[in-house]
């Protein structure tokens, strides 16, 4: 029994160390963007599972909701790349990156709302 508990506790220790190091070394902005990325990805997975289990009666509604979460995921990843990598985006300020994210998000949501039909 002790051999079974030892690997689990080591895995738990490694996981907790990774999480604590991640939280210590990343800024609050990146933590919020990462939370948005995880939320949008999980929401897309939940919608896909719901569609598989229940059905696709209003298919346009499913597609618009699914693409909305996937598009938000892509926009958030782009924002995270602009905020975290200072070498590639040295000419882009934090305010500009946030402004681009908001503008593209608003345009994207208008497109999704028009697709609802």
Task: Write a short abstract of this structure.
This protein is an all-alpha fold and 117 residues long.
Describe the structure.
- There is one protein chain.
- The chain is mainly alpha-helical.
- 85% of the residues lie in helices and 0% in strands.
- The chain is built from four helices and no strands.
- It has helices at residues 2-25, 28-54, 59-84, 94-116.
- Helix 2 (28-54) packs antiparallel against helix 3 (59-84).
- The protein is flat and about 45 Å long.
Layout of strands and helices, then pairs:
Blueprint: H1 2-25, H2 28-54, H3 59-84, H4 94-116
Round the mean pLDDT to the nearest integer and report it. Answer: 84
Q: Helix count? A: 4
Share in helix = over 70%
Major β-sheet annotation? none
What is the N-to-C succession of helices and strands? HHHH
> What is the structural class?
mainly alpha
What is the CA–CA distance across the termini?
Answer: 59 Å
The unreliable regions are: none
Say how many strands there are.
0
- Strand fraction equals under 5%
Estimate the global geometry from the Cα principal axes. Answer: flat
Radius of gyration, in angstroms, nearest whole number? 19 Å
């Amino acid at each position: 029994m002790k051999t079974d508990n030892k690997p689990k506790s080591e895995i738990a220790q490694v996981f907790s160390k990774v999480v604590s190091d991640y939280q210590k070394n990343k800024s609050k902005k990146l933590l919020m963007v990462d939370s948005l990325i995880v939320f949008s990805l999980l929401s897309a997975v939940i919608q896909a599972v719901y569609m598989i289990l229940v059905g696709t009666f209003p298919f346009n509604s499913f597609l618009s909701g699914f693409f909305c979460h996937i598009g938000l995921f892509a926009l958030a990843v782009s924002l995270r790349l602009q905020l975290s990598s200072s070498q590639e985006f040295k000419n882009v300020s934090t305010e500009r990156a946030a402004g681009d994210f908001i503008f593209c998000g608003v345009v994207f949501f208008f497109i999704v709302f028009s697709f609802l039909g």
